[in-house]
Amino acid sequence: MADASDAPSLKIDVGFSLASLEPKISFELPLKFAKKEADGRAVPVSWLRTWWNAWRDARRGLPDYNGEAGAFEQHVRRAEGLKHEQIEINAQSTLLSAADSVVECRPPGFQAAAAVQAAKNGVFGWLKAYRGVLSLAVDRMRLCHAAYLAEKAKVEGFAKSRGLVQEKPRSRISALDRIGILLLASLLEAIVSTILFSEVSEYGYVGGAGYALVVSLANVAAGLAVGFAATYAFNVKKTVPIKAVAVPLMVVLTILVVWMNLLVAHYREKSPFTFGNIFPETAWSGVLLVVGLIVWAYAVYKGWDDFEPDHKGHRDLWHAYEQAKREADGARNHYEALVVAMRANALTELDGIRSQVRAWEADHTARLGFIRSVIRAVEALKRVLPEIKANVAASAKQILSRYRETNFTIRKRKEPELKLAYPARLPPPPDLDIDSVLEDARTAEKMIEQNQTQFERFKDLFEEEVAKRLEEELDKVAAEAEKVRITPS
Fold it and tell me: How confident is the model over 118-126, as a mean pLDDT?
């Protein structure tokens, strides 16, 4: 079977690779618990505890009402700070997850025009290289076919110059096997004839075997002579003088064999052989006649088929001719395999690029859905985080105000000159850089959408400038192959 393993393989590279999207980040908004607490009791200090500390500190004459926070107020501020810290940690974790997700989802940029140009360079470079391989295959095919025709002409000229009927030398077994087969046929006839001759021979089976052996050898020798004369006159030397000698010899030997076998059959019957009494009268004598003629006819066939003389140089010429024919067939089959493999390789690669673009589109659809979920989560974080912080601050402020006011009411009774004052508030915690993460996510979303637009453009350009032109070139190669294809003669 011819192969095309030496043909260049087409691999279209558009210069764009995309790792599969396998998000390992479980992206959620871990602020639900914090928001739930902020909506209820953001700072974990109960009303009863606030009242108790206010009453107890009032009895002790605390706090100093000089703007400094007392022990209870410091405890509230620590609780407020811890709550803010927890919120900040949750928010920062959310933002880090979002930033990692954006990095993972952001694809490399894709430019349809550049990708199509890269595909064209690869395809038409491959076409040029493949045409070179085809050209070499055509040259080899023509050379091998010319060599085949030359060897064929030699065989035909040899056969014609020697008057051979067939150009191919006869295939034959060894000389020993050929003679052995004829001796076996003679022996079989002798065995049959011995049984029949023993009935009329005065020496019994011994005499019958002697008669039978002589007759069978005579039949084989005469048949071999007739067959050899026929093959020599009609296959080897087809000249008129040879035929003038061979044909009468064949006729005479045939008549003698028939006459001998008829005479033997009548001898067994002990009846005279005359023109009025040609054929034997008994069935066993007829069997003896038929067996002798069958062995003679078989010897004629073997003399015709197995004993034709060889012509010096005939087999060498024929072997060279067969070798040239095999090389010519191999070169032709190799060229045809190259043409078939060229189309198969090209169409397979085109389908591969189309499948690859479909995979890119599916991947970008998944990326787009994921990055939009990131954007929604970050926007939710941006919206809810100030609300959570405000709830915590309001909760702490409410506790501190209740504490001071309850404390002031109790102490006012003993200290009429006392004036209500509130401790200084803690500075608000710094805001997280949510906008930069959100901007990166929207940039990634825009890049994905741009790639999707470029994929659509690439498909149109690829079909028009690459696939269509490549198929046209393949049709041209197929047409050229039909013109240069050499039909074996």
Answer: 91
